[in-house]
Specification:
The chain is an alpha+beta fold. It has helices at 49-60, 104-113, 145-153, 159-167, 170-173, 177-184, 189-195, 200-212, 223-233, 250-264, 310-323, 328-344, 389-398, 420-434, 437-440, 472-475, 496-514; strands spanning 21-23, 41-45, 64-68, 80-85, 88-93, 99-100, 119-122, 125-127, 135-137, 243-246, 268-270, 275-281, 286-292, 295-296, 303-306, 351-358, 369-371, 380-383, 401-407, 445-453, 481-483, 522-524. It has a domain at 138-242. Bound molecules: flavin-adenine dinucleotide. The site of flavin-adenine dinucleotide has 34 residues, from helix 1, helix 11 and helix 17. FAD binds at residue 275.
């Protein structure tokens, strides 16, 4: 088995760059697998990245793992499913994703699954604004000169003003994870920027674009969470803002190799299986199983990893609490120890991802991916016929194009429940301001596909202190259950896909420690900032 040691290399030799750090196993002398003949059953609830990550580590160490996934497809917010469109089957994702350099856990999994070739670099990130010239942002040179290079190349910012702005932000430059979390979770990132007197152009061009792609309401996004995002995505080393994208659909690129690997390890993946409530052993107050949409699951599990998204976890626990309301010991633990975590957690506003098949292509100078921070409800446009193989092939055959439009916090702009057929018409006036060519050259819409969801984690200000860690429920007397997902709190800077994968691995580590099996090391972003 290949572990992450080989990506622990650090190739930014700049004095200022901060190395990622290892969280080493607490039990390095324990065996690396369960003893032969000992069976331990683990139920993983949710087949997103967090659940898949926990399943991978546990299956590799000899556990019998059962994944229950509500939908007919695996992957959670990274899902990719076949859809028949224009007499062809296309594999369509939940929405375009980017993988960042500091995603150390994800890189390790990519190496173990041997899927690195399914990714390509996304070198230059292009932005359009309403009141500024377009920006093409890329990082070059050692840290922190790479950041000054971004400012120097900007057609909008003056180098001296940019350097002053950057250096005047000790919260970013002298970043300290614990201190920032304590100090800034009760204010929004926008309030923080106002307090720090961040110059408007620096805010609009450098900071606001990152905020606009969080799928949360920008106005209330926690300053502490955003400052952590900044460390992960842009600071700490010269490569942190380097992104990669998949060159084939996410099923082929990631999910099929991952599930094939798990199946080879005898992991049972039950799709179309929604967990409705948990089963609790009343004597030990341990979670031992679940009742799901297929009925009562009679297997008694040794451990449960709860890896569904926050809205689903709230629902599962509400049902469990209702079921055990007359069982004093369970009722007391659930209502006094667990409910407080779930009551404070929130789901971010609803969003839509629209993919449109057109009969023509935009001119070749347009960018494959364009971020549009000033053009809500359109936050990002990806030209899939320039990104993924099956769309490239379709475009080569037909001369058409396939564009994906990300529309976050949809109901801040339009009625929540609009028909899919109305989505293009509603966003067209905004798209016309970004790509007038679509309308001037009368592009014909040949087909469309809409994903509408309200399942994203909220990172609103004030939630951090109530956010559970992987082991918070177990530490609060509910035994046998660990949590994983992008909404779970970590002790190091971590976000989104990387947080999902890291917490999945952390949940597995809790189980391994209890069973005296050697834990998996984690390589994570440094808690301290660059320190210039
Ligand atoms: C449009 C879009 C773009 C994004 N872009 C990026 C990006 O560029 N970079 C990045 O890092 N992140 C990005 N993200 C975020 C990223 O997708 C998530 O952070 C990550 O996939 C979350 O994984 P998870 O396993 O924590 O949760 P999820 O993926 O939500 O997985 C939870 C799973 O639990 C299942 N489930 C729910 N209820 C039940 C139940 N009762 N029983 C059984 N199963 C259940 C769900 O169906 C789901 O499969 C993006 C997200 C979206 C939506």
């Amino acid at each position: 088995m290949q572990l992450i040691s080989e990506i622990g290399r650090y190739d930014d030799r700049s004095f200022f760059a901060k190395d990622p750090v290892w969280i080493n196993p607490k039990n390095p002398k324990d065996p690396s697998r369960l003893p032969d003949g000992l069976e331990k059953k683990v139920l993983v609830i949710g087949g997103g990245l967090a659940g898949l990550s926990a399943a991978l580590e546990l299956a590799d160490r000899g556990y019998s793992v059962y994944i229950k996934e509500k939908y007919s497809h695996i992957g959670g917010k990274l899902f990719c499913k076949p859809v028949d469109i224009l007499n062809q089957t296309f594999w369509i994702e939940h929405g375009f994703h980017a993988w960042f350099h500091n995603y150390y856990q994800f890189q390790d999994i990519r190496k173990r699954l041997n899927i690195d070739n399914n990714f390509k670099t996304w070198d230059v990130v292009n932005y359009v604004f309403r009141n500024y010239k377009p920006e093409a942002i890329y990082s070059e040179g050692p840290y922190p000169l790479n950041l000054f290079g971004i400012i120097q190349r900007s057609p909008n910012l003056k180098l001296t003003d940019g350097i002053k702005s950057f250096l005047s932000l000790p919260d970013m430059v002298f970043y300290d994870f614990d201190h920032i979390n304590q100090k800034y979770d009760n204010i929004s990132f926008i309030e923080w920027a106002t307090q720090k007197k961040v110059p408007q152009d620096f805010y609009d061009i450098i900071l606001k674009p990152a905020l606009s792609v969080t799928l949360n309401e920008p106005i209330s996004f926690s300053a502490a969470e955003m400052l952590a995002f900044m460390q992960i995505f842009f600071l700490t080393n010269s490569k942190s803002d380097r992104r990669e994208v998949a060159n084939v659909n996410y099923y082929e690129a990631i999910l099929k190799p991952w599930t094939d690997y798990l199946i080879k390890q005898n992991v049972k993946i039950q799709l179309d299986t929604e967990v409705l409530r948990l089963k609790v052993d009343e004597k030990t107050a341990s979670i031992i199983g679940s009742v799901d949409s297929n009925g009562d699951d009679t297997i008694v599990y040794d451990w449960v990893v709860m890896a569904s998204e926050v809205g689903a976890v709230k629902k599962i626990f509400a049902n469990t609490l209702k079921y055990y309301q007359n069982v004093p010991r369970v009722n007391e633990i659930l209502s006094n120890n667990i409910k407080k975590y779930l009551d404070t957690m929130k789901v971010a506003p609803d969003y839509k991802v629209l993919r449109v098949w057109f009969d023509k292509k935009l001119n070749s100078s347009t960018h494959d991916i364009l971020e549009t921070p000033d053009f809500s409800p359109v936050n990002l446009i990806a030209q899939y016929h320039l990104l993924e193989k099956e769309f490239i092939d379709w475009s080569n055959r037909t001369g058409g194009s396939v564009l994906e439009f990300h529309c976050y916090t949809w109901s801040s702009f339009f009625t929540k429940n609009v028909n899919d057929s109305q989505v293009w018409d509603l966003i067209s006036p905004t798209v016309k301001q970004i790509y007038p060519e679509i309308f001037e050259r009368n592009f014909k819409v040949l087909a469309y596909h809409v994903n509408s969801f309200e399942n994203f984690s909220s990172f609103e200000k004030g939630l951090l202190k109530g956010r559970p860690f992987v082991d918070s429920f177990a530490l609060n007397k509910l035994n046998g259950i660990y949590l994983a997902g992008d909404w779970i709190r970590t002790k190091y800077p971590s976000a989104l896909m990387e947080r999902a994968v890291s917490t999945g691995r952390e949940a597995a580590n809790q189980i391994l420690l209890k069973d005296n099996v050697k834990q998996v090391p984690l390589l994570v972003v440094n808690n301290k900032g660059p320190g210039i």
